[in-house]
Amino acid sequence: MPSIQDLLQEITLLSSTSATLGWDQETYAPSGSVTFRAKQLAYLQGRIHKLQTSDSFREGLASLAGPNQRELTHQYERATKLPQELVELDSETSSLAKAAWSEAREKNEFDTFAPHLAKLLEIAREKADHWGYEDEPYDALLAEYERGAKTREVATLFDSIDTELAQIAAAAVEASASIPADFLHGPAPLEAQQTLNREVAESLGFDFSQGRIDTTAHPFCTTLGPADVRLTTRYEDHDFASSLFGVMHETGHGLYEQGLPASDFHLPSGHAVSLGIHESQSRLWENHVGRSRPFWEKWYPRAQELFPHLRGISLDDFLPAVNRCAYSPIRVEADEATYDLHILLRFKIERALLSGKLLVSDVPDAWNDAFEKLFGFRPKNDTEGCLQDIHWSMGGLGYFATYSLGNINSAQLFEAAQKNETVSSAFAQGDFIPLLAWMQKNVHQHGSTLFPQDLMQQATGSKTDPQPYLKHLRSRFTK
Amino acid sequence: MPSIQDLLQEITLLSSTSATLGWDQETYAPSGSVTFRAKQLAYLQGRIHKLQTSDSFREGLASLAGPNQRELTHQYERATKLPQELVELDSETSSLAKAAWSEAREKNEFDTFAPHLAKLLEIAREKADHWGYEDEPYDALLAEYERGAKTREVATLFDSIDTELAQIAAAAVEASASIPADFLHGPAPLEAQQTLNREVAESLGFDFSQGRIDTTAHPFCTTLGPADVRLTTRYEDHDFASSLFGVMHETGHGLYEQGLPASDFHLPSGHAVSLGIHESQSRLWENHVGRSRPFWEKWYPRAQELFPHLRGISLDDFLPAVNRCAYSPIRVEADEATYDLHILLRFKIERALLSGKLLVSDVPDAWNDAFEKLFGFRPKNDTEGCLQDIHWSMGGLGYFATYSLGNINSAQLFEAAQKNETVSSAFAQGDFIPLLAWMQKNVHQHGSTLFPQDLMQQATGSKTDPQPYLKHLRSRFTK
Description:
The structure is a homodimer.
Chain A: H1 4-27, H2 34-52, H3 55-61, H4 66-81, H5 84-107, H6 110-131, H7 137-142, H8 151-176, H9 190-204, E1 211-215, E2 221-225, E3 228-233, H10 240-259, H11 275-289, H12 293-306, H13 315-322, H14 339-355, H15 363-375, H16 401-418, H17 421-428, H18 433-442, H19 452-460, H20 467-477
Parallel strand pairs in A: 1-3
Antiparallel strand pairs in A: 2-3
């Protein structure tokens, strides 16, 4: 009988291999390879599942201790609680749903997607029943992404800030009307963008001997091994800032991954703890660093070298432009001041759907009404409304909340780090390595040994608290 | 107990996954990923070996029939004949040998590599003993690359042409002295090279929806799935032809792979039959097509568009330049007329080493003496002599012969195809698709169902025969 250590090593080899195939598919694989690639991935996933739910695995858990035992037991229980038929039905249903979602978007016709969403909700509720929950089905799903989080508490947190978030957004959008930003758009040759992206990522501490940046339509960060973190970005040929901020975001994810203990790569102690903490790192480098004055004091001259159209623009004109805000119906295009409104909206709708309080057929109206209340205008169609994101169609229910948790955590961690004199004085000089060192010590190195809320408590002195975030937004966007 | 079909499907999923990891390592993987990647590959290879040598596999062979049964039985027997310790010793020894080879090259010191080569030869002979052979150990190794080939027959074939090959080479080199070719060197921007490479590969029939071209230091072709063939090339910034001919070579390999029956991807009937046939396809497209007048009549105007320095050069001046020859101590830099001399040399030395007739310590002198006899000058050191190729250090003994078999086969297949009126009249017009169709019908579609020599017999009316090749070389290089 294989030992738990052997099993964990094997599972790690299989899942990192699977991640490599996934990365290849998103970056370079020719279109014709899709069918066979799906078979390879299904095979690898099947083997992982078999090992993770084996008797040897269960019995081996007893020989472990501490947080690794706790987390692996949790994972084992979740994996074994789902009947095989439900797992297969889930995968089959979401395959069909993804195609229907694409079609619905093209035809701008929610009804095409509605029956699929209804099925996916039914499956999600059934999964939640198998996993078990205290208050509501959303809890059981959220646990996949945010250990220890309770939906009710997240809702309370969001409810406590939604009005102020909306006010800040409104003020930011209004103030932005008089901020010129046309000059951001100018010739941005691919090579110049790649040069700046790479220099910035490197200066933030991203180790290119253990990672790289490629190009994809939808940027992401994925880890293929203990010393192999792959980021991706996309390029706009007249807007270098779009790719740069995207790269800083993914670099934040990448720095977290590179900061995890490599020798524990096969254990929870070597893995990121939650999406809400992961997103805190990406948003930290994208927004708290990337849109700050010290960052641009250091990097603006280099940007002007690479993009000559900026040479006549002063830093004092440039900086407000990269912090300019506008309402958009589309989440992925939203800026810092308006982003959370999108998340709060979807969280509410998703929660109501899962609890059965909202019917699928009522989603478009519910979406548009809630959107109008938050943004002051209605999306012009469902493609720009409730059909905009792919996640539901993939059965990805229960994790949008983590985006806003990430924003809130990022400000709280940043504020705590800045209390450290070394961090803050270096930051003021455009040196962000002490900030990284602080994050490595207080966040990265813990892997999944602490629950997210315990990690926040230990790092900052309190659990997730929205005040630093509101303070940050107010100071950046309202005068 | 899993059926043989299940086992074959699983082996195919594992080995194509392994190929994907290998491709990534050669193309994009960051340097730091090597150690973990080696673990992933060792794990996958271990599982493949376990399945291939399992009782279920052996028992399942009985349920098969025909060539697939024959080939899988052959593979099973070879896999099970080697003791596990020998396999491990082999892999360990070649890991160390590769490092020693690099060091020996850097220091230009054969003695650093010699003890490793001695060990590798011992292991190779032991493997040969386990596999069994009729005449000499080289037979057992060659069988890995060229089913049904006998070393003695290959040697007889090579001995029958070596004098004439040397004469043709000498004549070609002499004649080349008066052929101007400086104009080949001129600005060759990467994008222009990639454009031409892709247009040419596509026009030859390479399907980019099922394949792609990336950049590596050492070009290769690898198959990652039934609809996923990856080629690589390298670029010289002042020599577009170097990359183009490289791409045509790899495209030849790729067209063979794309021409195999995709539904038999898990069976020998869906796999290329031997290196000697594979190389016939790469050399066909590189030399018989790529260095021909009809090819350049069609493509020279496009090359002139992309590389303006060619605009003042007529096709009549250009064509001899791409067929210019010169002696080089380095095999991978050799041109069509001198290439086989390198192969014949290494084949002789390797065969003598394996049979024990040549001692490792005598290799440098034996190499340099034989080289001088063939080329008329001595390599200036061992790095340019017997240390030039990596293959021995990887335990890759027994396959260099297939390079020259490939050259010979390519001319023979080309001559046979040209007897077909559709093929030859299209060829004369710069349309090579009928040539591809002929190769698909007579070579590709057979997979490994025929032995290489039976395939040659069926396709051309005789087994491998050097006369068409000599005729081709004479006509191209001697007047």
